[in-house]
Amino acid sequence: MKCLACKYGTLKAGRTTVTVDRDRTTIVIRNVPADACDTCGEDYPDSAVASSLETVLQEAARSGVRFEVREYKAA
What we know:
The chain is an alpha+beta fold. The protein contains one helix and four strands, in the order βββαβ. The protein has a single domain (11-71), classed as Ubiquitin-like (UB roll), CATH 3.10.20.
């Protein structure tokens, strides 16, 4: 599949680090499975992974976390 960002690269399975900053909560999640462009490096987690990341962010915000670094764990 071609990259949607640069239109040139090819997506390859790999892992990435995702940083989410919303309201007063910042979460850094390492080793997230995602397809990455071999040209520009743009990352594309699939919808199940994105949903899992959203859940992590919501739980962290509810518990009062301001900043945290986590390793990705599949739901």
